[in-house]
From TrEMBL:
Residue positions of the active site: E236
Membrane protein topology class: Single-pass type II membrane protein
Short name of one Pfam family: Glyco_transf_15
An annotated GO cellular component: membrane
Listed name of the protein: LAMI_0F09406g1_1
Gene Ontology BP annotations: cell wall mannoprotein biosynthetic process; protein N-linked glycosylation; protein O-linked glycosylation
Lineage start: Eukaryota, Fungi, Dikarya, Ascomycota, Saccharomycotina
Organism: Lachancea mirantina
Amino acid sequence: KNSSHTVKENGFVYRKVAKEVYAGTKEKATFVTLARNEDLYSLIGSIASIEDRFNRKFQYDWVFLNDKEFTEEFKRVTTAMISGTTKYGKVPPEHWSYPEWIDQNKAAQVRDQMRADRIIYGDSESYRHMCRFESGFFYRNEMLKDYDWYWRVEPDTRIHCDVDYDVFKFMKDNGKKYGFTISIKEYPATIETLWKTTREFMEKYPEHIHPNNMLDFVSDDEGASYNLCHFWSNFEVGWLDLWRGPAYSAYFDYLDHAGGFFYERWGDAPVHSIAAALLLDRSEIHHFGDVGYFHVPFHACPIDDLTRLNNRCSCNPNEDFTWKGYSCTTKFYTVNNIPKPAGWLKYAD
Ligand code: GDP
Ligand code: MN
């Protein structure tokens, strides 16, 4: 136990207790957040929840990336929130622009059509650059070059539970390379040719497909079609070399040349998920069922009392999305023969 020390401030006496900090070695790991300056005050709640529940004990670094220069205010406020070292990087224009083979008129026509069809973010040019960046470039940023592991954090998210173990060491010690909290089905209109393009890639580069892959998570008919299941990439804990390696590099290049980041509206979530399912050993993918998570409009909340109460989760298990019909996490457990928590069916609808 820590003893208190007495501090006099503003004419008051405060008995303060030092916070507890883990003293062992750390992994080469960092949080990573892509954000705009105007996201600052939506982001600090996400940061506070990660710091309070996990990082104040471990003090991992935090890398912020932006296609524009961060303001002094953004840097000052976020640095004050974070126990680890903070770093601020600018995305180079090559990582946030049209490749030369893209027909920008055609891309603009697609945006107009998707606006008329009311497809979510379908009319947005910046959203497409964002999705392409998260798919193919964040892990190549200078700021991330000395790290092996990352945990992605977005504005307006929360983790609901105490995490009293080193998540990065957990990944390493248990042979995991990709971790998620929520999985869900994608809007088909945003990815019409993604699976066809993926199948071409699989045929052309069979050497990149892992023999013990998890095709049965993303396809219900042995690869004929995509079942739309993907890990929600606004939360990710992952191994950076998964994306930096030759298999994913070839996959991203193939997708990028096919043009669907601009001619459709391919999201980084289905791209990362299909890649993780096909390029990894299925045992290398982990569901973090004990963290609890929120990104509008879904909560992950451990339904198992022991997990939820031991970790002091501040969420309502009746709002948990994990075991609902539109979630793909039930399938993840089924195809991998992982036992589901007792009583999960009661939370299915
Ligand atoms: P959604 O979760 O799919 O609704 O998309 P978000 O609006 O949350 O965007 C995903 C992530 O990319 C968030 O971390 C945003 O802060 C970030 N982001 C989105 N668009 C831009 C952009 O134009 N510039 C920058 N720097 N970040 C962006
Ligand atoms: Mn978001």
